[in-house]
């Protein structure tokens, strides 16, 4: 769990994303964002972890209290590392809260079912606009994308191809940069070689 104030580095994240805006009450304005991060963006596979981040921002001028988040994942298809629920006493005006956990897909692919399809779902947030907890508000996070989970073997083949393509690209870039420089160095040496001068004359 992490709590930051607006002056802290990285507290606001990237606001170009689409956000879910909770119900506005009093001067509390809550934004609730859910994001998924993997080794290769938007690529999911059995046995490879997905890092879940829940960000809560208060853009209002008053604090919110009794903050509770919930983001349950189906345990038949995911191993969970960490807590899918979190509680915070308060988020101040202009504040930021963050909760993280990890899920790892698990399934055995078959010719009839080579992929596991998981429909995207939001996380849930409950908070109160008063310290007594009388004015409770429920909000949902940004909607995550639908997941197409590959088998472990398919992912290994995909990443091997991905790494090979990047290696070839890197070698090509190196050759394109060093090739002309090598040629220039070679002809510079030949030009400065007395034997080559005599032969030329």
Identify the quaternary structure here.
Answer: single chain
Please summarize the sheet with the most strands. Answer: 6 strands, antiparallel
Structural class by secondary-structure content = alpha+beta
Shape call:
elongated
Q: How far is it from the N-terminal to the C-terminal residue, by CA?
A: 79 Å
What is the count of helical runs?
2
Instruction: Tell me the total number of β-strands.
Output: 13
Strand content: 25-35%
Mean pLDDT: 79
Low-confidence stretches: 1-20
Helix amount, in percent? 10-25%
Cα-atom radius of gyration: 27 Å
What order do the helices and strands follow?
A: EEEEEEEEEEEEEHH
Molecular structure report:
The chain has 201 residues and is an alpha+beta fold. It contains two helices and 13 strands. Strands 1, 2, 3, 5, 7 and 9 form a six-stranded antiparallel sheet that branches. The model is unreliable at 1-20 (pLDDT under 50).
Summarize the structure.
With 201 residues, this protein is an alpha+beta fold. The protein contains two helices and 13 strands; from the N terminus they run E-E-E-E-E-E-E-E-E-E-E-E-E-H-H.
